[in-house]
Design brief:
The chain has 435 residues and is an alpha/beta fold. The protein contains 14 helices and 27 strands. The chain folds into 2 domains: 2-18 and 234-429, UDP-n-acetylglucosamine1-carboxyvinyl-transferase, Chain (Alpha-beta prism), CATH 3.65.10.10; 23-231, UDP-n-acetylglucosamine1-carboxyvinyl-transferase, Chain, CATH 3.65.10.10. The strands form 7 sheets. A 5-stranded mixed sheet has the order 23-25-1-26-27, with helices on one face. The protein has a 4-stranded mixed sheet with strand order 2-15-17-16, covered by helices on one side. It has a 4-stranded mixed sheet with strand order 4-5-3-14, with helices on one face. Bound molecules: ligand EPZ.
């Protein structure tokens, strides 16, 4: 049985939308609960497949989870005994590799399956391994697993990262928290999700300064046993996806529960398309005044540059925007797999290396397309919003990994979108179809 998303295009987005907790902050923070020798409760966890997978891994390792009266999730890692993250879980969700740093730091040993590559690239983890070895871990890679030991515990040091890897920075930050002495992480990732992880760890008693800058300082502590309540930040990639959707449909949208500073570059590009943007401490409003967006060229980069996780969505906008533009993907080596599907919908695109040039067309035409990865799925939904007819997107399980309640959210702001489950028998509708 396969879920299929159906979208009938032509409606401008109008309305107000709450933004969910950030997937890419929730995943490292969940892994970090392994470090804490006390119960911690997390609010604003998004209801996503990847979060469920990470919680299953934590339970397998011995972390107890409890849902309290206000539906907050409590995590208690006081009795963790197991230090092995098996292949079948790490293989389904690469971010499971984030348990390596906490396990080796607190338990001085760990056995974690190699995450392997995915649709968008080879996704190496050499920088994670190199940093852990600099902290004193002995690492052996055998039979598809990373075997890490540190019988005398990790020792603080100065690590200079060759690339600002997001989860690499997070793994090493978590490892350094219980290391003996001070660690400096130079050249690490500055993404807001890395800062959210540091804020969570400090709330539990860690001593981290400089998160979000080129120099992160971690003063090792012997144990973390401060119970804490933490509220996960809003998901800036979800927010950016809905803002781009509103721009594509020449609509108007207000997002709540999102801090604008994580999207500064994206908001700057949206203004260049002709959008009127207003922001507050925890909200962003966009209004296209009914105008067709202008095409804008972008080049992806690490934070504070244009996020690679919004590249596919931006291409959908350039497909129907006024004028020509070029998008260059500089972070991953294979993140243009949404191009053929967009071309099948009538987009005028040409690819050279990791750049795609577009000539805006007045409208796309509905088609049956296949999603290839999480953000490519979002790009196809956005294209469906402005395609004439009913677009059908298959392999939609990709989108459920990163977008909470996606069809109900889009429906709540005026879009005609519904899901069916298709298999050997006729399609079964699982959400109310807009008539
Ligand atoms: C994180 O992946 C995000 N995932 C990705 O989001 C995001 O696209 C990416 O950062 C870039 O912003 C999570 O946070 C769970 P990287 P990560 O290590 O950490 C190279 C989504 O759609 N590299 O920053 O795996 C690597 O090849 C997902 O939500 C090494 O060479 O990305 C890549 O070219 C997709 N060696 C570059 O760094 C290493 O040891 C950036 O990768 C590690 C990385």
């Amino acid at each position: 049985m396969l879920d299929v998303l159906h979208i009938k295009g032509g409606q401008p987005i109008q309305g107000v939308l709450p933004i969910s907790g950030a997937k890419n902050a929730a995943l490292p923070i969940l892994a970090a609960t392994l470090l804490i020798n006390a119960p911690v409760s997390l609010k604003n966890l998004p209801h996503l497949q990847d979060v469920t997978t990470m919680i299953s891994l934590l339970n397998l390792l011995g972390v107890r989870t409890l849902i309290d009266e206000s539906m907050q999730l409590e995590f208690d890692a006081r009795d963790v005994q197991c230090v092995e993250a098996p292949y079948d879980l790490v293989h389904t969700m690469r971010a499971s590799f984030l348990v390596l740093g906490p396990l080796i730091s607190r338990f001085r040993r760990a056995r974690v399956a190699l995450p392997g590559g995915c649709e968008i690239g080879t996704r190496p983890i050499d920088l994670h391994i190199k940093g852990l070895e600099q902290l004193g871990a002995h690492i052996e890679i055998k039979n598809g697993y990373v075997h890490a030991t540190a019988p005398d515990g990790l020792k603080g040091t100065h690590i200079i990262l060759d690339q600002p890897t997001v989860t690499g920075t997070e793994n090493l930050m978590m490892a350094a928290v219980l290391a003996e002495g001070a660690t400096t992480l130079s050249g690490g990732a500055k993404e807001p999700e890395v800062v959210d992880l540091a804020n969570f760890l400090n709330a539990c008693g860690a001593k981290i300064t400089g998160a979000g800058t080129d120099e992160i300082q971690i003063q090792g502590v012997s144990t973390l046993q401060q119970p804490c309540h933490y509220d996960i930040m809003g998901d800036r990639i979800e927010a950016g996806t809905y803002l781009i959707a509103a721009a594509i449909t020449s609509g108007a949208l207000r997002l709540e529960g999102i801090e604008p500073n994580g999207l500064s570059k994206v908001l700057e590009c949206l203004v260049q398309t002709g959008a009127v943007i207003e922001t507050g401490a925890d909200w962003i409003a966009l209004d296209m005044k009914g105008q067709r967006p202008k095409a804008v060229s972008i080049e992806t980069a690490t934070f504070p540059g244009f996020p690679t996780d919004l590249q596919a969505q931006w291409l959908a906008l350039n497909c129907v925007a006024e004028g020509e533009a070029v998008i260059s993907e500089t972070v991953f080596e294979n993140r243009l797999m949404h191009v053929p599907a967009l071309q099948s919908m009538g987009a005028q695109l040409s690819v050279s290396n990791q750049s795609v040039s577009s000539i805006g067309v007045d409208a796309l035409s509905a088609s049956e397309v296949y999603a290839t990865d999480l953000r490519a799925s979002a790009s196809l939904i956005l294209a469906g919003l402005v395609a004439q007819g009913e677009t059908r997107i298959k392999n939609i399980y990709h989108v459920d990994r990163g977008y909470e309640y996606i069809e109900s959210k889009f429906s709540s702001i005026g879009c005609r979108i519904w899901r069916t489950v298709e298999g050997p028998i006729s399609p079964v509708r699982t959400s109310i179809e807009e008539v």
